[in-house]
TrEMBL record, chain A:
Classification lineage: Bacteria, Pseudomonadati, Pseudomonadota, Alphaproteobacteria, Rhodobacterales
Name this protein carries in UniProt: NnrS family protein
Transmembrane segments annotated in the record for this chain: 46-71, 83-102, 114-136, 148-171, 183-208, 220-240, 246-267, 288-307, 319-344, 371-388, 394-413
UniProt KW keywords: Membrane, Transmembrane, Transmembrane helix
TrEMBL record, chain B:
Lineage: Bacteria, Pseudomonadati, Pseudomonadota, Alphaproteobacteria, Rhodobacterales
InterPro entries in alphabetical order: DUF2249
All residue ranges annotated as the DUF2249 domain in the record: 10-77, 106-172
Xref: Pfam families: DUF2249 (PF10006)
Record protein name field: DUF2249 domain-containing protein
Naturally occurring in which organism (per UniProt): Paracoccus marinaquae
Length: 444, 176
């Protein structure tokens, strides 16, 4: 019975996220604003298609699959996953359309207040589902659970601040409206808090597994979690102070330094893991994780200067984090994760009963490495283009990112279709590309 | 070598080592004569790490500590004594403690998923119905459990007390 090992909707989350990525990059090739103008309508629409549609949906899909695996406790109400998927997808589209109000499309301002309703419902649903694993596993005492919990808290603040600013942009001055000066805190909470801590939390276990490295919690990891907690406090306190008094520059700068510190501690831990690995030649997903982590180092080093100078430097920092680090790492691990899940889905029932391919034989490593290299090269080009204020180079970067993303999506499609597996080993019937398999047993 | 009559037996292997002999046989003799529920306190001049997995296969969890005099003291306690039912992974067979001794043992630490799952299922295919397999893993094999159920094998597993490994007993089901 293929499919009983997988969270039913994980691959649907991934497919939706990849669709948002391709759509956002294609739109960016056509419409990307010039460096320095990313807080306009088009820029905000593109950033949110990437941050929520692509990265957050990917994170939700990964969490619904791996949180129960890593914490050994099932999700609460896993059958609500497609509802959360539809809510976050529709909410992201409405938000992007809403921001076009700033470009002169006035109906956008009517859509803008609706988007947070759908997004809030979707995020809330996922948080409840995740709590089903995190609470009984006492996730707050656990190396993987802690950063994921902090990430969800950050998501709550990022959502609330984003919702408040969306109200202000839409011209609705109510109790929930927040001034646009809160934007740096919103970005910090969303990128460093939600996406950053969530990614880091999941990465410890996955990296240890892929590198065959000892996975014991270390004192360094506890210190890193402490730094992450301080970071979250600074961002949340800064946001509240900003709302109350209209200015919180010292808290913002302290948060930026804390981002550098937390990232430094995390990277030290990962380097330690890398050196302790028992797998002498890591697979392509771990080899290509190194440039992604280099982008994290770069973005974390740039964060304090970005806060002080703003403008091009701030845009380049956010780009390096979103495209170089988070998107790069996600695409890199996606190759491995999808090949692993596909192998389990198709071949688990046949173990010990005949010849089977190995997991890595589902992946065209050469082609994957080529497309991932193009992605990281294009991410570097885009970061430099934003720093230098070069619009043409930025567009070129988005075009190259689009080509790379399409190449990686093609590799994922080939993995799902077992294109590299010898015909004799292929099953008669392949599982659906990204939809859940037909239900053959009660809910797990 | 000193032995006491406490519920915890004590074995000091330093004299054996000092005389140039291998203490493994003496340790196994004492382990073999331990009454059910009795723990073994082993004293050695170094941390006897290789012994931990041997003892895990015999059903004992290791708790090492270094003494003030530099020697190592390891308390090997029976798993059933240190394990409450709540510690067993959901889906575990509660009668596992009455199963026969394992006919096969696999140390699957240091293998990347899905290799532990492949080895366990392949080994079970060659075992007779009713026989028991013990496996030591790096983490809980969550993708394996549904496959074990589908093949009608019973299993019981729990995380080591220090969280550093996962111990799994599987009784071969009737399906072939």
């Amino acid at each position: 019975m293929p499919g009983r090992h997988l969270a039913r909707w994980t691959l649907s989350w991934f497919a939706s996220a990849l669709l948002f990525l391709i759509a956002a990059l294609a739109l960016a090739v056509l419409l990307a604003p010039a460096p320095g103008e990313w807080t306009g309508g088009r820029g905000l629409a593109l950033v949110h298609l990437l941050a929520i549609g692509w990265l957050s949906q990917m994170m939700f899909g990964a969490l619904t699959q791996f949180l129960p695996v890593l914490l050994a406790h099932p999700l609460l109400w896993p059958h609500l996953s497609p509802v959360a998927l539809a809510l976050t997808g529709a909410g992201t589209l409405l938000l992007a359309l809403g921001f076009t109000g700033l470009e002169g499309w006035s109906p956008g301002f009517l859509l803008l207040p609706l988007a947070p309703v759908l997004l809030g419902a979707g995020f809330g649903l996922i948080a409840v589902m995740a709590a089903g694993s995190l609470v009984p596993a006492r996730g707050w005492r656990e190396g993987t659970g802690r950063p994921v919990i902090l990430a969800f808290v950050a998501l709550g603040f990022a959502f609330a601040s984003g919702e408040g600013m969306a109200m202000t942009v839409a011209g609705l001055d109510g109790a929930f409206a927040i001034g646009l000066d809160a934007l740096p805190f919103h970005i910090g909470l969303a990128v460093a808090g939600w996406l950053g801590l969530g990614t880091a939390g999941v990465s410890y276990r996955l990296f240890a597994m892929f590198l065959i490295a000892p996975d014991g919690g270390s004192r360094l990891r506890t210190v890193t979690a402490g730094a992450a907690l301080v970071l979250l406090f600074l961002l949340a306190a800064g946001l509240l102070r900003e709302i109350a008094t209209g200015a919180a520059p010292s808290l913002l700068l302290a948060a930026a330094f804390c981002i550098s510190l937390t990232a430094g501690l995390y990277l030290t831990d990962i380097i330690r893991l890398w050196r302790a690995r028992r797998r002498s030649v890591p697979e392509v997903n771990m080899q290509m994780s190194r440039p992604a982590l280099a982008f994290l180092a770069a973005a974390a080093l740039m964060a304090p200067a970005a806060v002080l100078k703003g403008g091009h430097l701030a845009e380049a920092t956010v780009f390096a984090a979103l495209i170089g680090w988070l998107s790069g790492l996600t695409l890199t691990q996606m190759i491995k994760i999808i090949s692993f899940l596909t192998w389990i889905q198709v071949f688990a029932a046949r173990i010990g009963r005949g010849a089977l391919p190995q997991v890595h034989e589902l992946v065209d490593e050469t082609a994957s490495r080529r497309w991932l290299s193009l992605w990281f090269g294009a991410a570097a080009l885009g970061t430099l283009a934003l720093l230098a204020g070069q619009s043409v180079a930025l567009r070129l970067s988005f075009a190259l990112l689009l080509v790379a993303a399409l190449g990686i999506v093609r590799q994922i499609w080939r993995i799902r279709r077992l294109a590299l597996v010898p015909p004799a080993m292929r099953p008669d019937c392949l599982p659906p590309l990204f939809l859940p398999p037909a239900r053959t047993e009660p809910l797990q | 070598m000193t032995q006491t009559t406490d519920p915890i037996r004590e074995l000091d292997v330093r004299p054996i080592l000092a005389s140039g002999q291998d203490p493994f046989g003496a340790i196994m003799d004492v382990v073999g004569s331990l009454p059910p529920g009795t723990s073994l306190r082993l004293i050695a001049p170094f941390q006897p790490t290789p012994l931990f997995s041997v003892m895990a296969r015999q059903g004992y969890a290791a708790a090492p500590r270094q003494r003030g005099d530099g020697a190592w003291e390891v308390l090997f306690s029976p798993d059933t004594g240190s394990t409450t039912e709540q510690d067993l992974s959901p889906g575990s067979n509660r009668e596992a403690m009455f199963w026969p001794d394992p006919a096969q043992s696999l140390d699957l630490t240091g293998l990347m998923p899905p290799e532990p799952m492949v080895r366990i299922l392949a080994t079970l295919e060659d075992m007779a119905p009713g026989e028991v397999l013990f496996a030591l893993l790096e983490r809980e094999p969550v993708f394996l459990f549904p496959e074990l159920s589908a093949r009608e094998h019973d299993w019981a597993g729990n995380l080591a007390a220090d969280g550093a490994g996962y111990r799994l007993l599987i009784r071969r089901g009737g399906e072939k």
